[in-house]
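Q: Hi! New to this. If I give you a protein sequence and the SMILES for magnesium ion, can you show me the bound structure?
A: Yes, paste them in.
Q: Okay, here:
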Amino acid sequence: MKTYKPFAKQKKAHNSKALYVLYGGSIGSGKTAWLCNSAIMHAVKYPSARILLCRHQLVSFKRSTLQTLLEFLPSDLVRRHHKSEHYIQFRNGSKIFYSGLGSETGDLDKLKSSEYSLICIDQVEETTSAHFLMLVSRLRIHFKGYKNQLLATANPDSGWIRARWVDTRKPDHEFIQAVCAENIFLPAGYEERMRQVYPEDMARVLLDGDWDLIQDAASVFKYSDIERAMINEKASDKGPLCFGVDIARYGTSESVICKLAGSVCTFPDIFGKVSLMETAGKIVQAIDRNKEVKVKCDMVGLGAGTGDRCIELGYNIYEYRGSAKADDPKKFKNKRAQDYFNLASLLKTLKIPNDPKLRSEMVGMRYFILSDGLIQCESKDSMSKRGLPSPDRLDALVIACSGEGESEYSRDDRPFLVSLGIEYEPTKEELDRDENESWAQMGSGPTIIGSRDVVREALSEVRVKKYPNSGHSMGMAATKKKKSPRELHSE
Ligand SMILES: Nc1ncnc2c1ncn2[C@@H]1O[C@H](COP(=O)(O)OP(=O)(O)OP(=O)(O)O)[C@@H](O)[C@H]1O
Ligand SMILES: [Mg+2]
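A: Thanks. Here is the predicted structure of the protein with magnesium ion bound:
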């Protein structure tokens, strides 16, 4: 049996009063030893305690975490190890249950109907945020004078744990960085041996536990580029003004206005759950505060109603459609993917908000190469399945910085385009919405009321004034109200 002698960082993690503690960092930094001994100490201190000690896969749990537990567990404390039932019973009535979270559905069902006084997850980055949230609900046996806790260990990772513990300090969460140099119990020369083998960046992540250098192979943005852009003092705000607006789709997501002035991006307004009309109100207020601003808005889903309302109020809003064809269709699946990579290249010159949420959204954003060889960026849904926050701030930033290939027309140009026979492919949402509505009502407010055919006819002789193309430096400012089709027709 090994004797556990916690070193300073392990002690700090043991003493944490937070509900959700992450002791995370380099390999060999005593994370598993800390976790297993936390479980043992809890079992001893609180007779009849129910502890869950787990990892994502039971196989890896048995191979590593369980071995560490058994190494440190004094045998005289144990009444019985029920190997087939996966629990260790202490003489004082406490039990440490162990389990895999990911693959064994039977185990997971058992977990869902149990409750624990302490939950310990080894290598929590291997599991999903959904598993974590499920476990949070299982934490509910109270002992007098002791707070329930969920303890976790991890190696540096760009996924949901970084967003939860490292980039933002949520209430009741504490992150303690683990570094292998502090583990005096490692064999002599271990660290030096590893340093000789690992490339420098890898050594900094795996041996120094440096969370800033982690780089997913499939990350769109390089961490060093993000950091540089957040503190770029050389960027100038002199130049054209533009807003990128991302409108909240779900309860938890935010509506974000990103302002790009010259090469400087800021978030003048970020707001949570408000009605679509209030959102429209906030957008037009922001427009009124900024003369000659061009506004690009993601009008998919709920955004459509908000955008329409702004247009109805007389503001010219440019529709941003991420699903539109990319300018380089041989490289990118759609415009959204192209614009993400566009932003990645602009980071060298831009100044972006030094904002922890934005940082974690950028670090977590991945891309894929599809079977046809095209680059596609991860969707909001896929990110939320990985437990990452909806990248609303990032999307607003991407929209603001999208220069090339944005819609050449604002939403209320559609009747013109139809009339000219210019191909326009409506999105599914637009088609559904159009079913019972005339295009004239949809786009240009109350000036023309009629069926699509009537509008087409009315506009057939109108010479369409096409808006200047692309870059944020061009296009019509939102403050100028566009002429209605009828006004143009009578010219
Ligand atoms: N406080 C301690 N007292 C005694 N031995 C310790 C202590 N902390 C860690 N060790 C020993 O140091 C070695 C590495 O510890 P551990 O396996 O917990 O590190 P780890 O961070 O979980 O490593 P990995 O990244 O490989 O999972 C183990 O042999 C462990 O028993
Ligand atoms: Mg370990």
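A: The CA atoms of residues 2 and 72 lie 5 Å apart. Let me know if you'd like me to explain how to read the tokens.
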